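[stage:ingest] chain + small molecule (6-O-phosphono-alpha-D-glucopyranose)
[stage:ingest] validated
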Amino acid sequence: MSRLIVVSNRVSPPNAAGEETVGGLAMALASALREYSGLWFGWSGKTTPQFTGALDIQTVEGVTTALVDLEEADLDEYYNGYANKTLWPLFHYRIDLTAYDRIYGEGYSRVNRRFAETLAPLVKPDDLIWVHDYHLIPLARELRALGLKNRIGFFLHIPWPAHQVFTTLPGHKRLVEAMFEYDLVGFQTEEYAQAFEDYVLSEAGGQQPATDRLHAFGRTLRVGAFPIGIDAPKFAQMLRSPRARRMRDLMTAATVFRYLVVGVDRLDYSKGLEERFIGYERFLADNPHLRREVLMLQIAPVSREKVEAYQEIRQRLDALSGRINGEYADVDWNPFRYVNKNYRRDELAGIYAAARVGLVTPLRDGMNLVAKEFVAAQNPEDPGVLILSRFAGAARQMGEALLVNPNSPEEIAEALKRAIGMDKPERIRRWRALFNKVEREDVTAWRDAFVGALAGTGARRTALAG
Ligand code: G6P
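[stage:predict] done
[stage:export] tokens:
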């Protein structure tokens, strides 16, 4: 069997403390690596005065990781720059926040080249290579330039924007051309795959020889939608853990006679947090009789703090949360709890289990796994209600949630009222339909579908399979 090499900017190997501190995607990739053997390559999270390409190789709990340090300038130009000031805002439709700076583009190419040069000596001829996310779009081009003929797949975790938005990026064609160095490109939803196809057909003079094939720049590529899921069995097991139960009991005790409304997001402008806070404020204003019956808890660990747009949104959210409590709190009670701390996944599972409403309202989101974890954590006999943005990739699979336009505080306020008043039979009916999908379309199904499709490609590069 071919080995699997996973490449991503951020690598979170399993640690001695157990996997409860590691994200869902990391857990899924770790289990893929155990099954297929192979290694996980990426940035160490550390900087070095001068790039050396020295690898830190370790094997923990059956997963081998190979990590490399980057220079400070790499981090500025590639991670904070092109990845998070150019591609991230643009792909989330925030043209107003998108910075176009030649230096960022150069740093992005340089780091992708460095990654390729460091990784190439570790690759065997029949390894499958699976590259993740927007940080590494040109990696296949760099690996091909070094002579690698392996099957290489790419999965984009974030949205692929509409053609009109994408073409605002200087050098957009070159970026798409680089994607044609992969054998398989996967997106979270059909909609994003479609947007990519639209671009290739109308802007790059491409053709579509079959429904899942695109031809352009002299090469043919397989394209598909592979919606990511959560690790459902592992999550169920975590939910039964003492830590999760304790957190559930703690939150239940802290909200006696009140409904808990919960949101959990990285502190990011794409998550719709301002609109969500204003929506909750509107709900409090419109429903004086319900005011003392709810508590909204928003957990939002800070993220990408070097990027100005993140500093600004943080300030605005601090001000808004202060305003809501200032306006509506009482001597013995407050309506809103806003926490910037990061929690373990088992603790979050317990918090979801205690909540009546999950509020997941990103303005744009590739998928959103909080929506799926919230559903997975509910008590089947008395489940909570998911309020979900129609602009999260998850909305495609989760039509039984209360779908809202996240730009509209009115819609959020109305959905909150509906969720709180929803009778048990309706809650159970909606939840059951959602839960069945979350369980079935889980991360193992996603991983096997992608790796299976990648293994099935390869006719194009006959020199592989050693
Ligand atoms: C999103 C991206 C991931 C990224 C994560 C955390 O989910 O799709 O690639 O790792 O955010 O962001 P950070 O910048 O902290 O890695």
